[in-house]
Amino acid sequence: MTEEAERLLTMDVKAVLLGDPGYPALLAESPTAPPALFYRGPRTLLGQPGIGVCGSRQASSHGLAAAGACAQVAVARGLTVVSGYARGVDTAAHLGALERGGNTVIVLAEGIQCFKHKAALSRSWDHDRAVVVSQFAPSQAWRADAAMIRNDTIVGLSRAMVVVEARERGGTFNAGLRGLALGRDVFALDLGVGGDSLGSALLTQRGAKVIGSRSELAAVLTSLSTPATSAQLRLI
């Protein structure tokens, strides 16, 4: 056994291959489905109905609050939250899901050996409700091109995408475009506070739906999963 394989076993990392029964069925339908996934945590979460959340690393305080609220709405509707692991919107989405008692999928833009628990998530972390997944070689470092590739996997695992404060270029905008290309519903948040959302406006021109409140988001998510009772609060 190689040193890397031994390290993965020590970290309780497992792998599933495209075509295996345990590979996420929705992701397998994507033309960019990774040939292999390395994961830590309950593999079953990868196959549960999920909603992807993507947004800026430099999101405003309103954007971060909205991302957390979106995650809470998704959890209340029985959906798993799927996002990357960057600071900003990604972290806020995972935290919102975990704090609400829901499930979350962390999709890495680097090898799974590089994963480290963030302080922001440590108090709410639950090994039974969070799975970390990577499509890259276990020791691969973060790269910008890998982040773009990773976005395809977030989209592939999700029944719909929520975009927060997208700029006119970059990963968030690209994730929205990929969602539209794959026939996913893409929801662009209209925060109404002058945030940097030019990319969101461009996405709506291409078919994304504008969402301005928690009640609106809950309504559109009803068709994605079994409804659950939730308070109808503003996103911001």
Task: Please tell me about this protein's structure.
The chain is α/β, with parallel strands linked by helices and 236 residues long. It has a single domain (3-224), classed as Rossmann fold (3-Layer(aba) Sandwich), CATH 3.40.50.450. It is built from nine helices and nine strands. The chain has helices at 3-10, 25-28, 61-76, 89-99, 119-122, 144-157, 171-181, 198-205, 214-221; strands at 14-17, 36-40, 50-55, 80-83, 104-107, 130-134, 160-164, 185-189, 209-211. The chain has a nine-stranded mixed beta sheet, with helices on both faces. α6 runs parallel beside α7 (171-181). It is globular and about 50 Å long. It starts with a helix and ends in a 15-residue tail after the last helix. This is DNA-processing protein DprA. Pfam families: DNA_processg_A (PF02481).
Key descriptive features of the protein:
DprA; DrpA_SLOG; 9 strands; DNA-processing protein DprA; alpha/beta; 36% helix; 236 residues
Rg of Cα set: 17 Å
At the fold tier of CATH, the topology name is Rossmann fold
- Largest β sheet strand count, sense and barrel closure: 9 strands, mixed
Number of strands: 9
Show unreliable segments: 227-236
Sheet with most strands: strand arrangement:
1-2-6-5-4-3-7-8-9
Classify the secondary structure makeup into a structural class: alpha/beta
Q: Strand fraction band? A: 15-25%
Family: Belongs to the DprA/Smf family.
Domain Smf/DprA SLOG: 16-218
InterPro entries: DprA, DrpA_SLOG
Pfam family, one: DNA_processg_A
